[in-house]
Amino acid sequence: MNRRDFLSMTSAAGAFALAPSAFAAGVTPNPGYGNLLILVELKGGNDGLNTVIPFADPAYATLRPKIGIRREQVVQLDERTGLHPALQPLLPMWAGKQLAIVQGVSYPQPNLSHFRSIEIWDTASRSDQYLHEGWLTRAFRAQPVPPEFAADAVVIGSAELGPLANGARAVALVNPAQFEQQARFATPVSLKERNPALAHILDVENDIVKAADRLRPRNGQFVLKTQFPGGAFGNSIKTAMQVLAATDTPAGMPQQGQGVAVIRLTLNGFDTHQNQPGQQAALLKQLSEGFVAMRSALVELNRWNNTFVMTYAEFGRRPRENQSNGTDHGTVAPHFVMGGKVNGGLHGVAPVLARLDGNGNLPVGVDFRQLYASVLGQWWGLDATGILGQKFEPLPILRV
After folding, report:
1. Alpha-carbon distances of 109 from 3, 330, 332, 357, 395, rounded to whole Å
2. Is 60 exceeded by the pLDDT of residue 97?
3. Which run of H or of E encompasses 120?
4. Roughly how many angstroms between the first and final C-alpha of the chain, as a whole number?
5. CA–CA separation, 327 vs 160, rounded Å?
6. Model pTM?
7. Does the CA dihedral 311-16-131-380 come out positive or negative?
8. Confidence of residue 210 (pLDDT cuts 50, 70, 90)
9. What is the C-alpha separation between 269 and 356, in angstroms, rounded?
10. Which residues in 343-389 belong to E strands, given as ranges?
11. Pairwise CA distance, residues 75 & 64, whole Å
Protein backbone atom coordinates (compact mmCIF):
# COMPACT_ATOMS: atom_id res chain seq x y z
CA MET A 1 0.00 0.00 0.00
CA ASN A 2 1.46 3.40 -0.96
CA ARG A 3 0.95 6.70 0.87
CA ARG A 4 -1.77 7.85 -1.52
CA ASP A 5 -3.80 4.68 -0.88
CA PHE A 6 -3.29 5.05 2.84
CA LEU A 7 -4.42 8.69 2.67
CA SER A 8 -7.60 7.73 0.85
CA MET A 9 -8.32 5.01 3.39
CA THR A 10 -7.84 7.22 6.42
CA SER A 11 -9.82 10.11 4.91
CA ALA A 12 -12.76 7.83 4.18
CA ALA A 13 -12.66 6.69 7.79
CA GLY A 14 -13.87 10.16 8.72
CA ALA A 15 -11.20 11.35 11.16
CA PHE A 16 -8.11 13.08 9.82
CA ALA A 17 -5.31 12.16 7.46
CA LEU A 18 -1.83 13.36 6.63
CA ALA A 19 -0.45 13.44 3.13
CA PRO A 20 3.27 12.82 2.65
CA SER A 21 5.93 15.45 3.13
CA ALA A 22 6.96 17.59 0.17
CA PHE A 23 10.23 18.63 1.82
CA ALA A 24 13.38 18.53 -0.32
CA ALA A 25 16.77 18.21 1.29
CA GLY A 26 19.07 21.19 1.03
CA VAL A 27 16.37 23.81 0.22
CA THR A 28 16.07 26.75 2.60
CA PRO A 29 12.47 27.31 3.77
CA ASN A 30 10.93 30.64 2.80
CA PRO A 31 9.89 32.85 5.72
CA GLY A 32 7.00 34.05 3.56
CA TYR A 33 5.01 31.05 4.77
CA GLY A 34 4.48 32.99 7.96
CA ASN A 35 1.87 34.72 5.80
CA LEU A 36 -1.21 32.51 6.06
CA LEU A 37 -3.42 31.59 3.09
CA ILE A 38 -7.05 30.62 3.75
CA LEU A 39 -8.85 29.13 0.74
CA VAL A 40 -12.65 28.83 0.72
CA GLU A 41 -14.12 26.59 -1.97
CA LEU A 42 -17.68 27.48 -3.03
CA LYS A 43 -18.41 23.94 -4.08
CA GLY A 44 -20.78 23.41 -6.97
CA GLY A 45 -20.17 26.68 -8.79
CA ASN A 46 -21.64 29.86 -7.32
CA ASP A 47 -23.90 32.07 -9.43
CA GLY A 48 -21.83 35.21 -9.77
CA LEU A 49 -24.46 37.47 -11.33
CA ASN A 50 -26.73 37.15 -8.29
CA THR A 51 -23.75 37.56 -5.96
CA VAL A 52 -22.07 40.63 -7.43
CA ILE A 53 -24.94 42.16 -9.34
CA PRO A 54 -24.68 44.41 -12.43
CA PHE A 55 -27.99 46.03 -11.53
CA ALA A 56 -27.54 48.96 -13.95
CA ASP A 57 -27.20 46.66 -16.96
CA PRO A 58 -30.68 46.50 -18.56
CA ALA A 59 -29.97 42.99 -19.84
CA TYR A 60 -29.77 41.67 -16.26
CA ALA A 61 -33.52 41.92 -15.69
CA THR A 62 -34.19 40.57 -19.17
CA LEU A 63 -32.06 37.48 -18.63
CA ARG A 64 -33.41 36.90 -15.11
CA PRO A 65 -37.06 37.93 -14.90
CA LYS A 66 -37.80 35.44 -12.07
CA ILE A 67 -34.62 34.92 -10.09
CA GLY A 68 -32.95 38.30 -10.53
CA ILE A 69 -32.39 40.40 -7.40
CA ARG A 70 -34.65 43.45 -7.47
CA ARG A 71 -32.82 46.73 -7.67
CA GLU A 72 -34.22 48.02 -4.39
CA GLN A 73 -32.82 44.95 -2.60
CA VAL A 74 -29.30 45.21 -3.99
CA VAL A 75 -26.60 46.33 -1.54
CA GLN A 76 -25.12 49.03 -3.75
CA LEU A 77 -21.32 49.30 -4.06
CA ASP A 78 -21.17 51.90 -6.83
CA GLU A 79 -23.41 53.28 -9.57
CA ARG A 80 -23.45 49.99 -11.49
CA THR A 81 -22.61 47.17 -9.11
CA GLY A 82 -24.05 45.78 -5.89
CA LEU A 83 -24.11 42.73 -3.64
CA HIS A 84 -26.76 40.16 -2.86
CA PRO A 85 -28.65 41.37 0.25
CA ALA A 86 -27.37 38.35 2.22
CA LEU A 87 -23.86 39.77 1.88
CA GLN A 88 -24.63 43.01 3.71
CA PRO A 89 -22.53 41.92 6.75
CA LEU A 90 -19.45 42.36 4.53
CA LEU A 91 -20.01 46.11 4.10
CA PRO A 92 -17.76 47.21 6.99
CA MET A 93 -14.86 45.28 5.44
CA TRP A 94 -15.71 46.81 2.07
CA ALA A 95 -15.79 50.31 3.54
CA GLY A 96 -12.46 49.62 5.27
CA LYS A 97 -10.84 48.66 1.91
CA GLN A 98 -10.05 45.18 3.24
CA LEU A 99 -12.36 43.30 0.88
CA ALA A 100 -11.59 42.94 -2.82
CA ILE A 101 -13.90 41.49 -5.45
CA VAL A 102 -12.28 40.10 -8.59
CA GLN A 103 -14.81 39.86 -11.43
CA GLY A 104 -14.78 37.79 -14.61
CA VAL A 105 -12.60 34.94 -13.30
CA SER A 106 -12.26 31.72 -15.31
CA TYR A 107 -9.76 30.32 -17.84
CA PRO A 108 -9.52 29.90 -21.65
CA GLN A 109 -11.77 27.22 -23.15
CA PRO A 110 -13.61 26.59 -19.88
CA ASN A 111 -14.85 23.09 -19.13
CA LEU A 112 -18.35 22.85 -17.63
CA SER A 113 -17.92 19.46 -15.95
CA HIS A 114 -17.73 19.72 -12.15
CA PHE A 115 -15.04 17.05 -11.90
CA ARG A 116 -12.80 18.27 -14.70
CA SER A 117 -13.13 21.98 -14.02
CA ILE A 118 -12.25 21.76 -10.33
CA GLU A 119 -9.31 19.55 -11.33
CA ILE A 120 -8.14 22.38 -13.58
CA TRP A 121 -8.45 24.87 -10.73
CA ASP A 122 -6.78 22.54 -8.22
CA THR A 123 -3.78 21.80 -10.46
CA ALA A 124 -3.59 25.20 -12.19
CA SER A 125 -3.52 23.46 -15.55
CA ARG A 126 -4.71 24.49 -18.98
CA SER A 127 -8.06 23.10 -20.02
CA ASP A 128 -6.29 20.60 -22.32
CA GLN A 129 -3.55 19.70 -19.83
CA TYR A 130 -3.68 16.97 -17.19
CA LEU A 131 -1.51 17.47 -14.11
CA HIS A 132 -1.48 15.21 -11.07
CA GLU A 133 -0.16 17.52 -8.36
CA GLY A 134 -2.06 20.37 -6.76
CA TRP A 135 -0.69 23.86 -7.37
CA LEU A 136 0.12 24.25 -3.67
CA THR A 137 1.87 20.88 -3.64
CA ARG A 138 4.13 22.14 -6.43
CA ALA A 139 4.74 25.36 -4.49
CA PHE A 140 5.75 23.44 -1.35
CA ARG A 141 8.03 21.17 -3.37
CA ALA A 142 9.74 24.16 -4.98
CA GLN A 143 10.07 25.98 -1.67
CA PRO A 144 9.33 23.80 1.36
CA VAL A 145 7.34 24.98 4.32
CA PRO A 146 9.62 25.21 7.39
CA PRO A 147 10.04 21.67 8.74
CA GLU A 148 9.21 22.83 12.24
CA PHE A 149 5.66 23.66 11.11
CA ALA A 150 3.13 21.09 12.32
CA ALA A 151 1.90 20.65 8.74
CA ASP A 152 1.88 22.41 5.40
CA ALA A 153 -1.87 22.78 5.52
CA VAL A 154 -5.09 21.88 7.28
CA VAL A 155 -8.16 20.91 5.23
CA ILE A 156 -11.38 21.27 7.22
CA GLY A 157 -14.74 19.74 6.42
CA SER A 158 -13.67 17.73 3.37
CA ALA A 159 -11.71 14.58 2.57
CA GLU A 160 -10.58 16.08 -0.74
CA LEU A 161 -7.14 17.67 -0.66
CA GLY A 162 -7.71 19.60 -3.89
CA PRO A 163 -4.77 21.98 -4.49
CA LEU A 164 -2.77 20.07 -1.86
CA ALA A 165 -3.10 16.66 -3.52
CA ASN A 166 -0.23 14.24 -4.14
CA GLY A 167 2.57 15.55 -1.99
CA ALA A 168 1.69 18.24 0.55
CA ARG A 169 1.74 17.55 4.29
CA ALA A 170 -1.97 18.23 4.68
CA VAL A 171 -4.02 17.21 7.71
CA ALA A 172 -7.62 16.59 6.57
CA LEU A 173 -10.17 17.13 9.32
CA VAL A 174 -13.17 15.49 7.70
CA ASN A 175 -15.22 15.83 10.89
CA PRO A 176 -14.00 18.85 12.89
CA ALA A 177 -16.17 17.90 15.88
CA GLN A 178 -14.17 14.69 16.30
CA PHE A 179 -10.77 16.30 15.86
CA GLU A 180 -9.87 17.07 19.45
CA GLN A 181 -11.09 13.72 20.72
CA GLN A 182 -9.35 11.72 17.99
CA ALA A 183 -6.10 13.63 18.41
CA ARG A 184 -6.13 13.23 22.20
CA PHE A 185 -6.49 9.46 22.08
CA ALA A 186 -4.13 8.82 19.18
CA THR A 187 -0.80 7.30 20.25
CA PRO A 188 2.43 6.71 18.34
CA VAL A 189 3.00 3.26 16.86
CA SER A 190 6.22 1.28 17.32
CA LEU A 191 8.55 1.46 14.33
CA LYS A 192 10.26 -1.88 15.04
CA GLU A 193 8.23 -3.51 12.26
CA ARG A 194 10.64 -5.00 9.72
CA ASN A 195 8.17 -5.28 6.82
CA PRO A 196 8.98 -2.23 4.64
CA ALA A 197 5.41 -1.69 3.44
CA LEU A 198 3.95 -1.88 6.93
CA ALA A 199 6.75 0.21 8.37
CA HIS A 200 5.88 2.84 5.75
CA ILE A 201 2.25 2.89 6.90
CA LEU A 202 3.29 3.11 10.56
CA ASP A 203 5.53 6.05 9.70
CA VAL A 204 2.56 7.86 8.15
CA GLU A 205 0.42 7.05 11.20
CA ASN A 206 3.05 8.56 13.47
CA ASP A 207 3.18 11.68 11.31
CA ILE A 208 -0.58 11.98 11.74
CA VAL A 209 -0.33 11.63 15.51
CA LYS A 210 2.42 14.21 15.80
CA ALA A 211 0.70 16.75 13.55
CA ALA A 212 -2.69 16.28 15.20
CA ASP A 213 -1.18 16.65 18.66
CA ARG A 214 0.43 19.95 17.70
CA LEU A 215 -2.77 21.31 16.14
CA ARG A 216 -5.41 20.27 18.67
CA PRO A 217 -6.81 22.83 21.14
CA ARG A 218 -5.33 22.62 24.65
CA ASN A 219 -6.39 23.62 28.13
CA GLY A 220 -5.11 27.03 29.08
CA GLN A 221 -4.56 28.25 25.54
CA PHE A 222 -5.88 31.56 24.27
CA VAL A 223 -9.70 31.54 24.46
CA LEU A 224 -11.42 33.26 21.55
CA LYS A 225 -14.11 35.79 22.40
CA THR A 226 -15.49 35.73 18.84
CA GLN A 227 -18.96 34.23 18.47
CA PHE A 228 -19.11 31.87 15.52
CA PRO A 229 -22.24 31.15 13.50
CA GLY A 230 -23.79 27.71 13.72
CA GLY A 231 -23.91 25.11 10.98
CA ALA A 232 -21.20 23.13 9.25
CA PHE A 233 -19.44 26.13 7.72
CA GLY A 234 -19.46 28.13 10.94
CA ASN A 235 -18.08 25.12 12.81
CA SER A 236 -15.34 24.71 10.21
CA ILE A 237 -14.30 28.34 10.66
CA LYS A 238 -14.32 27.90 14.43
CA THR A 239 -12.09 24.83 14.12
CA ALA A 240 -9.73 26.72 11.81
CA MET A 241 -9.40 29.56 14.28
CA GLN A 242 -8.85 27.10 17.13
CA VAL A 243 -6.03 25.52 15.14
CA LEU A 244 -4.42 28.95 14.79
CA ALA A 245 -4.94 29.67 18.49
CA ALA A 246 -3.20 26.39 19.31
CA THR A 247 -0.20 27.11 17.10
CA ASP A 248 0.38 30.88 17.19
CA THR A 249 2.31 33.13 19.53
CA PRO A 250 0.62 36.28 20.92
CA ALA A 251 2.43 38.21 18.18
CA GLY A 252 0.45 36.34 15.52
CA MET A 253 3.24 34.14 14.21
CA PRO A 254 3.61 30.35 14.41
CA GLN A 255 5.21 29.04 17.58
CA GLN A 256 8.45 27.08 17.31
CA GLY A 257 7.53 23.56 16.24
CA GLN A 258 4.01 24.46 15.20
CA GLY A 259 2.05 26.39 12.59
CA VAL A 260 0.57 25.84 9.12
CA ALA A 261 0.90 27.76 5.86
CA VAL A 262 -2.58 27.07 4.44
CA ILE A 263 -6.09 26.42 5.73
CA ARG A 264 -8.70 25.22 3.26
CA LEU A 265 -12.44 25.33 3.96
CA THR A 266 -15.44 24.22 1.90
CA LEU A 267 -18.96 25.61 1.69
CA ASN A 268 -21.15 23.10 -0.15
CA GLY A 269 -24.38 23.48 -2.12
CA PHE A 270 -23.83 26.00 -4.92
CA ASP A 271 -24.97 23.76 -7.80
CA THR A 272 -28.31 25.59 -7.99
CA HIS A 273 -30.08 24.16 -11.05
CA GLN A 274 -33.45 24.48 -9.32
CA ASN A 275 -35.06 26.94 -6.92
CA GLN A 276 -31.91 28.99 -6.65
CA PRO A 277 -33.11 32.15 -4.83
CA GLY A 278 -33.70 30.59 -1.43
CA GLN A 279 -30.75 28.21 -1.61
CA GLN A 280 -28.25 30.82 -2.66
CA ALA A 281 -29.49 33.36 -0.14
CA ALA A 282 -28.95 30.85 2.68
CA LEU A 283 -25.46 29.97 1.41
CA LEU A 284 -24.37 33.57 0.98
CA LYS A 285 -25.67 34.34 4.49
CA GLN A 286 -23.44 31.55 5.83
CA LEU A 287 -20.53 32.89 3.82
CA SER A 288 -20.87 36.51 4.93
CA GLU A 289 -21.52 35.72 8.60
CA GLY A 290 -18.67 33.22 8.55
CA PHE A 291 -16.31 35.79 7.03
CA VAL A 292 -17.24 38.37 9.64
CA ALA A 293 -16.52 35.87 12.43
CA MET A 294 -13.29 34.82 10.73
CA ARG A 295 -12.07 38.41 10.57
CA SER A 296 -12.99 38.97 14.22
CA ALA A 297 -11.04 35.90 15.32
CA LEU A 298 -8.05 36.75 13.13
CA VAL A 299 -7.93 40.24 14.66
CA GLU A 300 -8.07 38.65 18.14
CA LEU A 301 -5.18 36.38 17.21
CA ASN A 302 -3.19 39.28 15.75
CA ARG A 303 -3.33 37.44 12.42
CA TRP A 304 -5.52 39.67 10.26
CA ASN A 305 -2.62 41.57 8.70
CA ASN A 306 -0.75 38.41 7.69
CA THR A 307 -3.73 36.43 6.40
CA PHE A 308 -4.97 36.32 2.80
CA VAL A 309 -8.46 34.83 2.37
CA MET A 310 -9.63 33.84 -1.12
CA THR A 311 -12.71 32.10 -2.50
CA TYR A 312 -12.67 29.84 -5.53
CA ALA A 313 -15.02 27.45 -7.37
CA GLU A 314 -14.99 25.26 -10.45
CA PHE A 315 -17.06 27.70 -12.54
CA GLY A 316 -19.91 30.21 -12.43
CA ARG A 317 -23.45 29.94 -13.83
CA ARG A 318 -25.07 30.91 -17.11
CA PRO A 319 -26.41 34.46 -17.35
CA ARG A 320 -29.86 33.34 -18.47
CA GLU A 321 -32.04 31.66 -15.83
CA ASN A 322 -33.44 28.24 -16.64
CA GLN A 323 -37.06 27.05 -16.48
CA SER A 324 -36.61 25.63 -12.96
CA ASN A 325 -35.90 28.98 -11.29
CA GLY A 326 -32.22 28.14 -11.29
CA THR A 327 -29.07 28.50 -13.36
CA ASP A 328 -26.97 25.99 -15.25
CA HIS A 329 -23.22 25.60 -15.48
CA GLY A 330 -21.52 28.67 -16.90
CA THR A 331 -18.08 30.19 -17.25
CA VAL A 332 -16.95 33.21 -15.26
CA ALA A 333 -17.65 34.22 -11.67
CA PRO A 334 -16.48 36.85 -9.20
CA HIS A 335 -14.33 35.86 -6.24
CA PHE A 336 -13.72 37.47 -2.88
CA VAL A 337 -10.34 38.29 -1.36
CA MET A 338 -10.01 39.72 2.12
CA GLY A 339 -7.32 40.52 4.67
CA GLY A 340 -5.56 43.34 6.46
CA LYS A 341 -3.18 43.91 3.54
CA VAL A 342 -5.74 43.49 0.77
CA ASN A 343 -6.22 46.36 -1.66
CA GLY A 344 -10.00 46.52 -1.41
CA GLY A 345 -12.42 47.40 -4.17
CA LEU A 346 -13.59 46.05 -7.51
CA HIS A 347 -10.96 44.38 -9.69
CA GLY A 348 -10.97 42.33 -12.85
CA VAL A 349 -13.48 42.66 -15.67
CA ALA A 350 -17.09 43.58 -14.95
CA PRO A 351 -19.75 41.58 -16.85
CA VAL A 352 -21.24 43.14 -19.98
CA LEU A 353 -24.39 41.11 -20.60
CA ALA A 354 -24.84 42.34 -24.16
CA ARG A 355 -21.57 40.60 -25.09
CA LEU A 356 -22.28 36.94 -24.42
CA ASP A 357 -20.52 34.32 -26.49
CA GLY A 358 -22.19 31.90 -28.89
CA ASN A 359 -23.15 29.60 -26.01
CA GLY A 360 -24.78 32.37 -24.03
CA ASN A 361 -21.92 32.66 -21.55
CA LEU A 362 -19.74 35.55 -20.46
CA PRO A 363 -16.23 35.70 -21.93
CA VAL A 364 -13.24 35.17 -19.66
CA GLY A 365 -11.93 38.39 -18.18
CA VAL A 366 -9.31 37.22 -15.66
CA ASP A 367 -7.40 33.94 -15.68
CA PHE A 368 -7.72 32.32 -12.25
CA ARG A 369 -3.98 31.65 -12.29
CA GLN A 370 -3.46 35.40 -11.93
CA LEU A 371 -4.95 35.01 -8.45
CA TYR A 372 -2.52 32.17 -7.77
CA ALA A 373 0.38 34.27 -9.09
CA SER A 374 -0.62 36.98 -6.61
CA VAL A 375 -0.47 34.47 -3.76
CA LEU A 376 2.75 32.79 -4.86
CA GLY A 377 4.72 35.82 -5.93
CA GLN A 378 3.42 38.74 -3.89
CA TRP A 379 2.19 37.02 -0.74
CA TRP A 380 4.87 34.35 -0.32
CA GLY A 381 7.72 35.67 -2.45
CA LEU A 382 8.02 32.52 -4.57
CA ASP A 383 8.76 31.96 -8.25
CA ALA A 384 5.18 31.93 -9.50
CA THR A 385 6.20 31.39 -13.13
CA GLY A 386 8.18 28.27 -12.29
CA ILE A 387 5.38 26.81 -10.19
CA LEU A 388 2.56 27.63 -12.63
CA GLY A 389 4.55 26.69 -15.74
CA GLN A 390 4.14 30.06 -17.46
CA LYS A 391 3.97 33.72 -16.54
CA PHE A 392 0.70 35.14 -15.25
CA GLU A 393 0.46 38.77 -14.22
CA PRO A 394 -0.47 39.16 -10.54
CA LEU A 395 -3.51 41.26 -9.77
CA PRO A 396 -3.32 44.55 -7.83
CA ILE A 397 -5.15 43.05 -4.86
CA LEU A 398 -2.40 43.36 -2.24
CA ARG A 399 -0.80 46.30 -0.51
CA VAL A 400 2.67 44.82 -0.01
Report:
1. 34, 12, 11, 12, 21
2. yes
3. helix 114-123
4. 45
5. 26
6. 0.87
7. positive
8. low
9. 26
10. 345-348, 366-367
11. 18
